[in-house]
């Protein structure tokens, strides 16, 4: 399998090179040049496999320049029962006859980002070796909260790598911030940026495409790569759990092989749901992909009207990991549905960066709305959904997952479609405990309490244990306390690398 840029500037590179580069030199994203198809028999074989075996069965098609040994080693280092606290890695919880919940937050940092960021460092280090690269890899990441910690944890003390994470100073929760500023490891840095996630993400993209800096880096033996979902190495591991969930439903007799299901995905940067799209293109029987947003509903509008318009106020919501107005991975979807038309895609992206909006042609719009259905949930609907699911099902969900369930309810009302549905649950309720406790037990219960007291309260009241990764966070030493402006991000990087 070879990869090419969505903007046409580079093609026919191996997966190792795509993973190492992160983003294409023309500012585009790497995508597979050809389509992978699994037969129904191959999907059936997944039913009796472990998560690790399923991962191998999917990944080997996309990263076929890695040896079987290299793939196995990466998978086994990433997805261990020890790290995920459960054998299934990505368990499917049956909420009722119609709805199952795909729990993607059992990893070390309690959000779905671990599914990709536990394996990415292994793929990247092997990529460096395979391509004969000699420099030290410098991983840059912008984070709306969850990627940062997951990337720091994934790359900590990995030889031949350094990692620098930028997070919006006031855009992350107390738990998320502490997770990042207390990070241990000899090769890790986290820096607060004055601004929102989009500022951090744009800043990182600018650093990546800065020719002069990249030459200077090379002279000093450094090479940039990305831990954001613009990196194909983050996307490809996410395809696995869609197949895994489907195989679990078949295995339990909830559906028959070949039956279609819906997936509901709480969406920000469009990475998670794009992996679902690739799974569908590979032959996974999918009826509809439901794109759930919060009040930063730029994707809802895009999918419903064909116009992407980021010129609107950025809202801070109770689902902060989805507070995003520029969904990078949409570019990959556009490339796929236009039949790999890099000219069109580059044109839209240029228009977006110049004017803040673009409109796709009627044909592209139709193709997208045939597959995707989109709506959004505001904060009060999100809180109500958390309460409702707990009262009716005795099951505790976080705010992002609640956005998904609320949007799914809207979908059912609007379409009358009762196809079996999998809701993708992207974070542990403990990670956003302030909102969860408030939703379940009222405003009084959270008043004047820190997120750390609330961990205990949530645990005691609901009878569920606090995840390992969140215990004792408030007693850890603060190791990173830098704050910078967006315009200073490049200098921060240079100063960390002493160049
Ligand atoms: C990152 C994140 C999302 C959004 O995922 P994308 O791939 O960016 O669309 C949703 N929920 C949580 C908890 C996240 O951390």
UniProtKB/TrEMBL annotation:
GO terms for biological process: threonine biosynthetic process. The modification N6-(pyridoxal phosphate)lysine is found at residue 113. It comes from the Bacteria. InterPro entries: Thr_synth_N, Thr_synth_N_sf, Thr_synthase-like, TrpB-like_PALP, TrpB-like_PALP_sf. GO terms for molecular function: threonine synthase activity. Residues 3-79 form the Threonine synthase N-terminal domain. Its EC number is 4.2.3.1. It is an enzyme of class 4 (lyase). Residues 99-355 form the Tryptophan synthase beta chain-like PALP domain. Coiled coil: none annotated. Its cofactor is pyridoxal 5'-phosphate. CDD domains: Thr-synth_2. GO terms for cellular component: cytoplasm. Keywords: Pyridoxal phosphate. Belongs to the threonine synthase family. This is Threonine synthase.
